[in-house]
Automatic annotation (TrEMBL):
Ranges for domain Flagellar Assembly Protein A N-terminal region: 86-265
Origin species: Colwellia ponticola
Domain of life the protein comes from: Bacteria
PANTHER family to which the protein is assigned, alphabetical: POLYMERASE-RELATED, RNA-BINDING PROTEIN KHPB N-TERMINAL DOMAIN-CONTAINING PROTEIN
Swiss-Prot/TrEMBL GO biological process terms: cell morphogenesis
Name of the protein in its database record: DUF342 domain-containing protein
InterPro entries for the chain: FapA, FapA_b_solenoid, FapA_N, MinC_C_sf
C-alpha cells in the first residue's frame, strides 16, 4: 500500500510525499484530506489542484508495477502558509474608512501597526481609532483561517457650525417676574410680591450681546478640511432709555431709573410710575412711560400708559390701555352677563384691556381684550371677547393646558388650550376674520385699479385703431406714436396689477390654510370655527383635536400624542 506523509519544504510550506507500493487500498483525495486534518498543518491553505496532480502521477507510477513492487517517490507542495491580507475602503463621503481582513492561513497575522500602515497607504490620514485598530487585529487573529473580519477604523469629524449672536437679558422683565412669582419659605408664593429689582438704576447693565462663534472645523478621513458656517451676527440695539456701555460695546446699560423691557435685539427702559393700588382715592392714571401697580385696579378705574402696565393683583371692571405689554399677576374680572339670551358680540363688558404689545394674566372672565400681539392666559378664559393680531395661548408656557370656555375670539394665527368649550354646551366662537377681510379688501382695491386700467387700455386701443384707419393725407404719425406709448405703459401697469392680485390671492389661501384651533385634552360641542366664508361647529365631544380649514371645508383631526 502506498505510503503518504506531509513534509515541510525549504519555503516553509508543506509537501505531500508519496512512496508508491502496488496493492492495497488506493489512495484518494479524501484520504489526503484526512491526513491534513490530523496534522499540525490543518490551518494552511490547501492546493487541491496539486493533490489531484499527485494522485494522477501516482496512478501512472503504479500502473506498470507488480503487486508489492515500489515505484519512484512523488512529491508535490499541497499546503501553503498564507499571510493575512487587508482591504481598505473609504466611504463615498470620505467620512469613514473600513478595514476588511482576510484571516491568515498558517501565515502571519496583521498587527495594529500593519493595519494602520495599510490604511495610510490607501489614503486614510486622519480620524483613526487606536482602540478599533487593536481590537480588529486581535479579532482577526482569533477567527477561522480564510474568514473575513471588517471594522470601521477611522471616522471623519463633521464641522460644527457657529452659533448666532444673541442678546442675553441681565435683568428680569416684568412678565418674567410676575409669571414666576417669588416663593416663600413655607413653599407658598406671594402673587403680590414683585420684588424691587424690577426697576433698574442708571448705569446698570441690562443686556449683553453674546457674540457669534465661528464654529469648529471638521475633516474627512483623507484629511480634507470641512469648514464650518459661522453664526449670523446681530447688532445690539440701544432702545429708548439705554446706551451702549463705553467700557464694553457688547453691554447695554440703562440711562435712567425705570422698567426694563425686551425689544428685538436689545432692551429699552421706560420711565416708571409706581403705585400701590388704583382706587377712587388715587384717581385714574395717564402716564407717559410704564406703570407698576403693586396691588389691584378697582372697579371703574382707568390706567393709560405709553409703555407697559404691570399689575401685581387683580383688574376688576376697569380699563387698561398700554402702548406696550400688559401683565396681570392675578385675574381680569368683569361683571357677569347673561350670554345665553344676548349674543356675545352684543355684550358690552365692564372690563376693557387694550395693548399694542402682548397681554399676560393668570385668568380672565367677562373681559373685552384687544391686543396687537399675543395673549397668554395661564389658567382659564371665560366668556370674553378678544380681538388679537397674534396667538391665544391658555395654559402654562410649556403646555397649553388651560380652559377656554365660551366667548368670541378674533385671532390672528392660532388658538391653543387644554379644554375648549364646556359640557354645558357654551357657545365658543373662534374667528380668523380680520386678516382675511384685510386681504380681501386689498384684492378688491386691486380689482378696481385693474378695471380702471382695463378701461383706459381699451380706450387707447380704440384710438390706435382709429388713427391707423385715417387716409394717408390725414395721417398723424406723431400722435399715433404717443398713443401707442401710452397704451404700452397702461398695459404694463395692468399686468403688474394682475400679478399683485395673484400674489394677494395666494397669500389669502395660504393664510386661511395656516390658521387653526387646538385642544390638547378635550373639545366639547358648541365650538365654532370661522375662516372667512367657511365655518362649522362641533356637535359632540372630542379628545385631543385640531380644527382647521382646508379644501374649502372645516376639518376636525385628532392629535396623536407621541
Amino acid at each position: 500500500m502506498t505510503k503518504a506523509y506531509l513534509l515541510c519544504n525549504n519555503k516553509d510550506n508543506v509537501d505531500l510525499v508519496l512512496e508508491p507500493i502496488k496493492g492495497g487500498e488506493p489512495l484518494s483525495a479524501l484520504s489526503v484530506k484526512a491526513l491534513i486534518d490530523e496534522s499540525e498543518f490543518r490551518k494552511l491553505y490547501i492546493d487541491n489542484s496539486n493533490i489531484n496532480n499527485a494522485l494522477a502521477e501516482l496512478g501512472e507510477v503504479l500502473t506498470p508495477l507488480q503487486d508489492g513492487q515500489t515505484g519512484r517517490t512523488i512529491r508535490y507542495q499541497i499546503l501553503e502558509r498564507v499571510d493575512a491580507s487587508i482591504k481598505i475602503t473609504i466611504e463615498a463621503d470620505q467620512m469613514s474608512a473600513i478595514a476588511q481582513i482576510t484571516c491568515a492561513q498558517g501565515g502571519k497575522h496583521l498587527s495594529a501597526k500593519d493595519i494602520l500602515d495599510a490604511a495610510k497607504e490607501a489614503g486614510v490620514k486622519k480620524g483613526f481609532s487606536k482602540e478599533h485598530l487593536i481590537e480588529l487585529a486581535q479579532l482577526a487573529a482569533q477567527k477561522a483561517p480564510n474568514s473575513t473580519v471588517d471594522m470601521q477604523i477611522a471616522r471623519g469629524k463633521v464641522a460644527i457650525n457657529g452659533k448666532d449672536a444673541r442678546i442675553k437679558p441681565l435683568v428680569e422683565s416684568a412678565q418674567a417676574r410676575i409669571l414666576k412669582p417669588k416663593r416663600q419659605e413655607d413653599g407658598s408664593v406671594d402673587m403680590r410680591d414683585l420684588g424691587d429689582i424690577i426697576c433698574v438704576k442708571i448705569g446698570q447693565p441690562i443686556a449683553q450681546k453674546i457674540p457669534l462663534t465661528q464654529g469648529i472645523e471638521g475633516y474627512t478621513v483623507s484629511a480634507t478640511p470641512l469648514l464650518p458656517e459661522p453664526g449670523n451676527d446681530i447688532e445690539l440695539i440701544a432702545g429708548e432709555g439705554t446706551d451702549i456701555s463705553p467700557k464694553n460695546t457688547n453691554i447695554l446699560i440703562s440711562k435712567k431709573v425705570g422698567l426694563p423691557k425686551l425689544i428685538n435685539n436689545g432692551m429699552e427702559v421706560d420711565e416708571i410710575y409706581k403705585i400701590k393700588n388704583v382706587t377712587v382715592a388715587t384717581g385714574n392714571i395717564n402716564f407717559t412711560g410704564s406703570v407698576i401697580i403693586d396691588g389691584d385696579v378697582n372697579e371703574g378705574m382707568k390706567v393709560i400708559a405709553s409703555g407697559d402696565i404691570t399689575i401685581g393683583g387683580f383688574v376688576e371692571s376697569a380699563t387698561l390701555e398700554a402702548g406696550g405689554d400688559i401683565t396681570v399677576s392675578g385675574g381680569i374680572i368683569g361683571r357677569k352677563h347673561d350670554i345665553e339670551s344676548t349674543h356675545i358680540t352684543e355684550v358690552i363688558m365692564s372690563v376693557n384691556i387694550s395693548a399694542k404689545g402682548s397681554i399676560y394674566a393668570k385668568y380672565g372672565q367677562y373681559a373685552q381684550i384687544q391686543c396687537g400681539r399675543d395673549v397668554h392666559i395661564e389658567n382659564q378664559l371665560l366668556h370674553s371677547i378678544l380681538n388679537i393680531d397674534g396667538r391665544l395661548w391658555i395654559g402654562k408656557s410649556e403646555q397649553a393646558n388651560g380652559k377656554l370656555i365660551g366667548g368670541y375670539i378674533k385671532a390672528g394665527t392660532s388658538v391653543h388650550a387644554g379644554i375648549i368649550g364646556a359640557t354645558a354646551g357654551s357657545n365658543t366662537f373662534i374667528n380668523f376674520e380680520p386678516k382675511i377681510l384685510k386681504l380681501k379688501d386689498d384684492i378688491h382695491q386691486i380689482e378696481e385699479l385693474i378695471k380702471v386700467d382695463s378701461d383706459k387700455t381699451n380706450e387707447l386701443k380704440n384710438a390706435i385703431n382709429t388713427l391707423k384707419k385715417l387716409p394717408q393725407d390725414k395721417a398723424k404719425p406723431d400722435l399715433l406714436a404717443k398713443v401707442v406709448a401710452s397704451y404700452q405703459y397702461q398695459a404694463n401697469q395692468m399686468g403688474q396689477a394682475l400679478n399683485e392680485k395673484a400674489l394677494l390671492e395666494s397669500d389669502l389661501q395660504e393664510y386661511m390654510s395656516s390658521v387653526y384651533i387646538e385642544a390638547t385634552e378635550k373639545m366639547y360641542h358648541g365650538v365654532e370655527l370661522i375662516v372667512g366664508d367657511f365655518h362649522d361647529r362641533t356637535r359632540r365631544e372630542y379628545g385631543p383635536s385640531r380644527m382647521s380649514y382646508r379644501d374649502r371645508k372645516i376639518f376636525i383631526d385628532p392629535i396623536v400624542n407621541t
